[in-house]
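Dear colleague,

Thank you for sharing your sequence with our group. We've completed the structure prediction you requested, and as agreed, I am returning the results in plain text so they can be pasted directly into your records. Please verify that the sequence below matches your submission; if there's any discrepancy, let me know and we will rerun it promptly.
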Amino acid sequence: MALPTDSDEIRAARSLVCEIGRRLWARNMVAANDGNVSIRVGDEVVCTPTGVSKGFMDEATLPVVSLDGRQLEGDHASSEIKMHLRVYAEDDSVRAVVHAHPMFATMWAITGQPLRATMLPESVVTMPWIPIAKYGTPSTDAVPDSVAPFVRDYHACLLEHHGALTWSADPIAAYLAMERLEYTAQITWRLRQAGMIRELPPDELARLREIFHGPVIELPARGLS
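Please find the predicted structure tokens below.
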């Protein structure tokens, strides 16, 4: 359902997009004008504008676009809005998408490897496996196409040579998933450098998923080398 762009729901989404942007910027998960955030409200999407630091956005000028990408209001939307719109198209329950370039997650994405997160109970029950979406030229349909296969079964993926993407039915949950992904990438990277990767045993992984109703995702038999 289309809502007036001055509705309470749209205004609340504008405020939250700016708040998430500031948090990404404050935690060094974006540099310069990098990254983008969107929140779906009915059949409209409030998103970040192109060429603006996520730490210095103005609620009043945030773009509002339709689900098919038509500009409805505000400044020009980021060219990467296609990636966000594809996530919404793949899963109607998603209400927010966050794209950032956190340091360790981005380094991991450059390696072209998925990230196995089975060393900490918190990761096992929330994000045990972060897949890698194959590289696509930014602003083209190649990026949405690479992300689409993961939307329904995951809440995050790495973007090869690009950064990371998270999504959720709740905007704050989408942002917190980015925090979780970056923490997991950082601790895994540092432990690999130290040669000390040590995963929880399979029986404990199964126990954690049973107790906390964690995602049922088939993990490769071997850990990261």
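Summary note from our side: The first strand starts at residue 36 and ends at 41.

Kind regards,
the structure core
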